[in-house]
UniProtKB/TrEMBL annotation:
Residues 73-366 form the Glycosyl hydrolase-like domain. It comes from Christiangramia oceanisediminis. Residues 1-19 form the signal peptide. It holds the Pfam family GHL10. Keywords: Signal. InterPro entries: Divisome_Glycosyl_Hydrolase, GH, GHL10. Transmembrane segments: none annotated. It comes from the Bacteria. Residues 22-64 are annotated as: Disordered. This is Family 10 glycosylhydrolase.
Amino acid sequence: MKIKKAILVVALAFLYACGGSKPTTSEPLPQPVDEKEETIEEPVAPEVEEAPEKAEEKEERPFITPPPQDIYEFRAAWVATVANINWPSKAGLSTSQQQQEALKLLDFLKDHHYNAVIFQVRPQADALYDSELEPWSYFLTGKQGQAPNPYYDPLKFWIEAAHERGLELHVWLNPYRAHHTTGKEITEASVIKQKPGLAVKLDNGMWWLDPAKQETQDHSSAVVMDIVKRYDIDGVHFDDYFYPYDSYNSGKDFPDSATWEAYVNNGGELSRSDWRRDQVNRFIKRIYSEIKAEKPYVKFGLSPFGIWKPGYPQSVTGYNQYEKLYADAKLWLNEGWIDYFTPQLYWKINQYGQSFPELLGWWESENTMGRHLWPGINVGLGGDSSNADETINQIMITRGMLPESPGTVHWSIGPLVQHSSLATSIKEGPYKKPGLVPASPWLDDEPPATPEVSTEIRGERIGIKWTYPENAEKADKWVLYFRYEGGNWDYRIFSGDKRNFEMQYIVGDKKRKLQEIGITAVDRLGNQGEFRNISIKN
């Protein structure tokens, strides 16, 4: 931690010296933006089921030669479908229009060297995919329960197109929201009508599934696992909506008196706040366990509100998710009930009370299980140079503070596409070269096999071919590392179906020759095989 703190101090000192904007004491703004009441509470430890025993330590693996460069970094963007924020641009577009818009967004991510997309498939207990459990989304077709015409499965389309472009696809679900204010008519297909008694209406017009009802937890779990079983996804993602923001109900308490009284009458002893947190805790732990039992390689990620409680760390002020959303995100990170943790740190570096690096450093101090910590950042501040600098500085601070597994998730893809100057600044800066999604060794740390490589010099060009053992698991990607005379190592990333490549053997005015190459296989979880250095001789 001393090294990380030193990096933080240096980064902040540099940024302040460069004349950053004045610190502000404004309240932190969750997504969507709402003013929130400040409260400061002492920590409460909810009663939860015991965590599963840690796996036994694996035998130490034989040393393998690592590649000459570390090229890991998670680079993702959220694609929101609720209220048609990002896709489709409006409800009721034709199948062709929807697909064209989707490909444009995915091409943008590929061309700007991102490696993952977090795609919202369940905005209000509905589906942007073919489901027998919930109706087709209003935000897709303009009528809840109506399938696309001509028919296609949007999620399947997004997955295949993302994978063709070397992108992971994580499905983003809202586990409890039953109806959004922009969702228009509540049809007979809605869970509100299909499962009466599960959902309650809030003052702002939203409907919310009661998180403490066992049927709510069972239904939302069934939805998650239906997707995990039937689709070739890379991750499952929840955001910050657990119990709803109190502003949605005019500041009044969540209307769950019947559920609460049933718990008390059955001998429940927890306080009402601890009982609510306990219900969410059990659900989070359950989802993680069920995903791993079905497909261990599918990652589970959470993106909670960026502040756990005011006062953690000491100078932080703002909304209290622990007491207001009944989300003990710190516990989930401490227990390792997730594979990656993406707190929504939507504030500027020098914003007093909600400083980006200060909050990131605190969350890292709580990452006791060594999971991926990939903060969510707000790129919607505009397209001018100061906002581009803010975004780039946050990416660079994240790299410095979390060097073992850097990564950033961008809220959202909309501003990146809208502001070309912002997107170009990121691409020409920290994302100048593509990167691999960091490996998750607690899920799998078995390195893939090493390919056999052959080369053929053809004048000023060289052909490179590689073969893979027939009994080896299919490679997800390949990395070609190469170095010219007097130069540093460079690399190219290829899809798993690639088996050959032609490149310059002699480059530049000084006629520098290619000196060394090496190819590594990369599996689905980001593990790289052994690097074998091959000297190129004419």
